[in-house]
């Protein structure tokens, strides 16, 4: 992973560019629109600051939409060719993963017919791990198509990136607010 200060600088620069792109297309924005613009541009800036080197960042870029304006921000930050390439490659991955997952589920049903008694503690632990893994797959962008090992690696990278995002936003919020002079 890169130096945290350079990652923060890169994120801040791309986030401000994304906000500028988003606000130039939408002049009359409500508070809800501004909130959505801040979130979308922050997510895309975070993914583009990782240079689309991780699966979660590619999933964020692939999830951009023309309807909410995030596609314009992604095109402005990464370029249209890069965005199109990511969208095409992610659609191939999701289709192949979905079909192989379907085959895998079918083969598990066939193997399930043989009943063998497992100790209760092992069964409970296995169910708990499966439940937590399923929850984690829903939290990490693109996590539903990852195996367990890459899911954990991507989760760690995603957590570090989110921590960077929080640090930059917190720093910006504290510097933007200036207390009124006391009388």
Automatic annotation (TrEMBL):
CDD domains, alphabetized: bHLH_AtIBH1_like
Q: Which gene encodes it?
A: LOC111485792
Please identify the protein, giving its name as recorded: Transcription factor IBH1-like 1
Q: Name one Pfam family in it.
A: IBH1_N
**GO terms for molecular function, please?**
protein dimerization activity; transcription cis-regulatory region binding
Main location as per UniProt = nucleus
**Where is each BHLH domain found?**
113-162
GO CC terms for this protein? Answer: nucleus
Q: Which UniProt keywords apply?
A: Nucleus, Transcription, Transcription regulation
Q: Coiled coil as a keyword?
A: no
Q: Return one Gene Ontology term, BP aspect.
A: regulation of DNA-templated transcription
Q: Where in the cell is it found?
A: Nucleus
Q: Which InterPro entries match?
A: bHLH_AtIBH1-like (IPR044549), bHLH_dom (IPR011598), HLH_DNA-bd_sf (IPR036638), IBH1-like (IPR044660), IBH1_N (IPR059002)
Give the species.
Answer: Cucurbita maxima
